[in-house]
Amino acid sequence: MTTAVDKPWVLGLTGGIASGKSAAAQRFAELGVHVVDADQASRWVVEPGRPALAALAERYGAALLQADGSLDRGALRKVIFEDAQERRWVEALLHPLIAEEIARSLASATSPYAVFVSPLMVESGQYRITQRLLVVDAPEAVRVVRTLLRDHTTPEQVQAILKAQASREQRLALADDVLVNDRDLAWLHSEVERLHTFYLTLRGGRE
Fold first, then answer.
1. Residues in the annotated binding site
2. Which residues of this UniProt protein bind ATP (predicted)?
């Protein structure tokens, strides 16, 4: 029976847009670590039939829905990036629901530690539910190029996302560990494996 002493500790994993945090999280999962993704939790709470989607549709109308009744994420993104007041309303609706889903999923972890991935770990204060914080970092110029190639978006949209996220300095100030991801995927994997070996030696996320 699991006791409070041997309950898995939580590693927070974050990084700016296109830093490589998702690829790092995937490697942790491949190594047998329980991974909880804030983005997946945020998608789950607005699935068709869930109360949050009905509330969004009531406020913003059918323009926020796709033909199959699911959320049009692009339309919602436009709303929250263009109007700070609307962003706050959406956050007040969704954040408590997302937090519940994250807590439920973390509680089900059976690996020695669990990884909680969130792009807004610092901005949202989510790092407070972790025992240790790993920041995947890369120079901003590298991240902008990756985003443009990956998302086929505009430089203006990338800058808007960067502005909405914490600065590198804010993330790095809170980091216990930093993984600089400015090389290829093999390098990223080797760094994750090195950190995993180290994390297995920790109790409660501390040395």
1. 18-23
2. 18-23
Once rounded to an integer, what is the mean pLDDT over residues 63-80?
92
Exposure pattern of 58-82 as b/e (b: 16+ CB <10 Å)? Answer: eebeeebbeeeeebbeeebeebbee
Distance in angstroms (rounded) separating the CA atoms of residues 20 and 72:
25
Q: Which residue has the tokens 């919602």?
A: 76
- End-to-end alpha carbon distance in the chain: 25
pTM: 0.82
Identify the bridge partners of residue 26 per DSSP, sorted by sequence position.
Answer: none
Amino acid identity at 21: K
pLDDT in tens, 3-61: 445 789 999 999 988 899 999 999 999 999 999 999 999 999 999 999 999 999 999 99
- In order of their start, the domains of the chain are 9-33+113-201 (3.40.50.300), 38-110 (3.40.50.300)
For 43, other C-beta atoms within 10 Å of its C-beta total 15
Closest CA to 55 of 64, 67, 44: 64
Which residues make up each annotated binding site for ATP?
18-23
List the structure tokens of 13.
């994993």
